[in-house]
């Protein structure tokens, strides 16, 4: 289970011109590893995640999810890949107001043809793993912001993906809740042996990640391994 992005460039058309959002970006994340990507607004973080998720095709470069280069797949095959092998945690949980926590997880499973009883049992286990035992039957309005983010993370894991892509998970949370969410991400990354990329403009939680890279003007500017100094970027 791994994600390998090699020499990724991405340009957006912008009227007569093009805006280059990513320039020759490469990164590799292995199973059970959490990589944080940080950078200021407009540096290319969301673009990087969108390319990793197969939502945007890069202008150049390859994206290997396990052994499959998703940049070479048809749109339908990428969508399938996203459903099966790539978990995405968006900044806003976007939970469905009328569904309780376990039902939020069952929606994805239903689309994959998993029987309700199985998806319910599995969903309850996953919710327990993210610290929501006893709250499985609450609807979103009866959960706190941090708890909704936990449902969001559990939902991204229902397919047991190879890759987990996380966009600004702490943006709406205070320091302690933010730290708890990053710790949870690290925990599930290990437990489910997923290759996790967390994008954040928040530098205060970076030390909790296994490694972190900075991005500026679409370029990777170096990698930091906690306690190990700066590696080549
Ligand atoms: N659809 C688009 N069309 C044209 N330019 C775009 C588009 N999306 C992003 N850009 C540009 O690409 C660059 C990178 O944007 P991106 O959203 O990836 O940055 P970001 O680091 O995620 O920013 P933020 O932290 O503010 O969300 C910016 O210059 C942005 O203006």
UniProtKB/TrEMBL annotation:
Pfam families per UniProt: ABC_tran
Keyword Metal-binding found: no
InterPro entries for the chain: AAA+_ATPase, ABC_transporter-like_ATP-bd, ABC_transporter-like_CS, ABC_transpr_LolD-like, MacB-like_ATP-bd, P-loop_NTPase
PROSITE patterns listed in its UniProt record: ABC_TRANSPORTER_1 (PS00211), ABC_TRANSPORTER_2 (PS50893)
Keyword Transport: yes
Entry keywords, A to Z: ATP-binding, Nucleotide-binding, Transport
GO CC, alphabetical: plasma membrane
Sequence ranges assigned to domain ABC transporter in this UniProt record: 3-232
GO molecular function, one term: ATP binding
Database matches in SMART domains: AAA (SM00382)
Protein's UniProt name: ABC transporter ATP-binding protein
Species for this entry: Actinopolyspora mortivallis
């Amino acid at each position: 289970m791994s994600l390998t992005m090699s020499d990724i460039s991405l340009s957006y058309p912008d009227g007569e011109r093009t805006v280059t959002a990513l320039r020759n970006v490469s990164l590799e994340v292995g199973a059970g590893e959490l990589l944080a990507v940080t950078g200021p607004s407009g540096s290319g973080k969301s673009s990087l995640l969108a390319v990793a998720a197969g939502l945007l095709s890069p202008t150049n470069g390859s994206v290997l999810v396990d052994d499959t280069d998703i940049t070479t797949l048809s749109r339908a095959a990428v969508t399938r890949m996203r459903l099966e092998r790539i978990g995405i945690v968006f900044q806003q949980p976007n939970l469905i107001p009328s569904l309780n926590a376990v039902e939020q997880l069952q929606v994805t499973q239903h689309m994959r043809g998993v029987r309700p009883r199985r998806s319910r049992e599995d969903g309850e286990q996953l919710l327990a793993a993210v610290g929501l035992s006893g709250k499985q039957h609450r609807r979103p309005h009866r959960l706190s912001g941090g708890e909704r983010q936990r449902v969001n993370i559990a939902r991204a894991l229902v397919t047991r993906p190879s890759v987990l892509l996380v966009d600004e998970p702490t943006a709406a949370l205070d320091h302690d809740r933010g730290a708890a969410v990053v710790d949870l991400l690290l925990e599930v990354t290990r437990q489910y042996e997923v290759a996790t990329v967390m994008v954040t403009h928040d530098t205060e939680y970076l030390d909790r990640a296994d490694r972190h890279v900075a991005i500026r003007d679409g370029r990777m500017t170096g990698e930091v391994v906690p306690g190990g100094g700066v590696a080549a970027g």
